[in-house]
Amino acid sequence: MGRPVRVRVPSPAQHMAPRERELTVALLSSTASWSRCLLAERRFCYRIPIVCAVFLYNPEVVHFNYGVTHPFRLERLWLTEYLCRRLGLFDGSQRVLRTFDPADRSNLRVAHSSSYLDALQGSSDGLMFPGLYRYGLGSGDNPIFPGLWDYVLHTAGGSLQGAELIVSGEARRVFHPGGGLHHAMPDRASGFCYVNDVVLAIHRLLDAGKRVFYLDLDAHHGDGVQNAFYERKDVLTLSVHQDGRTLFPGGGFVQEIGRGDGLGASVNVPLMPHMSDADYLRTWDEVIDPLFHAFGADVVVTELGADALAGDPLANLELGLRTWWEIMGRIASWDIHWLAVGGGGYDLANAMRAWTLAWAAMVGVDVPDELPPAPDRLVGCAADMSWPRDMWSSPVEGLARRPSDEVIAELIRQVREQVFPYHGL
Ligand SMILES: [Zn+2]
């Protein structure tokens, strides 16, 4: 038996779900078992009574390749793992770097049709055959490449493992940066996404009776996840993205608020191009945070696509890394179980730093301004990247004026008018 660990935690708070209060009581009165999950950093002990965080990374995944001209780069995972390791973010028993097994086909049926899975599996030699286009396969966005089937099984496996760790109580926070393929549809690949690992993971949480708050920060609307739960009231999907009139996939408008039982449980904040830090923080204060507290979730699932950051080559939002870090800290302060997945993010240096910051927030440690030096050998297309100067700098300066405050005010007014009444707000 270990010695009791003293931490400065508040008494079980009113905002905690019953299970959270139960765990906090267990922590305060226990010795060995819960103490293994404690966070040593005193700064965060106020806010995070129990932390056992798992970072899921399977090095096999980096070897899959969408093609040399494709913007979706799996090297981002390798870079993130490198940066986290060099910053000591895996040091300590409560921060676990762990590999995972691929899913199997039966796991995917929860979210995908059998005929689509047949097509996907059949194209894994990288050769086209008639009929693939109707499944969205073989296009420029969703190429078929050798090992595709193995790749999708790995992607799904990581996020499913993440959900399982939370359901089993083994982890309080899990990050699977290789997940977040939020555009995949039941019978169609879309937007670089073949299998919707997010939908699979949320289903696993729902099966365990969890109530899920899904927050999608990718620059692109989280359409596949929204569609999967559009009529459910036990999952609230909230997507903050670039306006669909200006960016793929073309939807995610304020008026998409769910259907049937799910009315009010789909929320969309379509930001105009060049919106930036102030707009995100205002969205947080006036939409995200009130809805989170009104909804009363057991688990928050976040899609952390890094393509809303300034300088992304595929989107036009201008979120800064310091505000990203602030948002990650605010999610951590919600202090419930947290499953995070990756997503878009087409500037390698942005994605690597954004996901490192997310992991640092999950384990409750600060980060230095300076970055460690680049690795001796950068794999794949990472060899062509410019290693960033520091943790915060943007690859480009903003090229256009941010829309005026009136634009974000009106957008937020519309969102609140559409969905707040369903939540007693
Ligand atoms: Zn995206």
Describe this structure in words.
- By secondary structure, this protein is an alpha/beta fold.
- It has one domain: 3-Layer(aba) Sandwich (Arginase, Chain A), CATH 3.40.800.20.
- Helices cover about 35% and strands about 10% of the residues.
- The protein has 13 helices and 8 strands.
- Helix 11 (about 320-335) links the parallel strand 7 and strand 8.
- Helix 4 (about 75-85) packs across helix 12, helix 7 runs parallel beside helix 8 and helix 11 (about 320-335) packs parallel to helix 12.
- It is globular, with a radius of gyration of 21 Å.
- Residues about 1-50 have low confidence and may be disordered.
- The structure holds zinc ion (ZN).
- Zinc ion binds near residues 219 and 344.
Layout of helices and strands, plus pairs?
Elements: H1 18-29, H2 32-35, H3 42-45, E1 53-56, H4 75-86, E2 95-98, H5 105-108, H6 114-122, H7 148-167, E3 173-176, H8 197-207, E4 212-216, H9 223-228, E5 235-242, E6 266-271, H10 277-295, E7 299-303, H11 321-334, E8 337-341, H12 348-363, H13 405-419
Parallel strand pairs: 1-2, 1-3, 3-8, 4-5, 4-7, 5-6, 7-8
Helix pairs in contact: 4-12, 7-8, 10-13, 11-12
Task: Give me some keywords for this one.
425 residues; 13 helices; globular; 8 strands; binds zinc ion; disordered N terminus; Arginase, Chain A
Task: Determine the N-to-C terminus distance.
Answer: 47 Å
Low-confidence stretches: 1-51
Strand arrangement within the widest β-sheet reads 2-1-3-8-7-4-5-6
CATH architecture: 3-Layer(aba) Sandwich
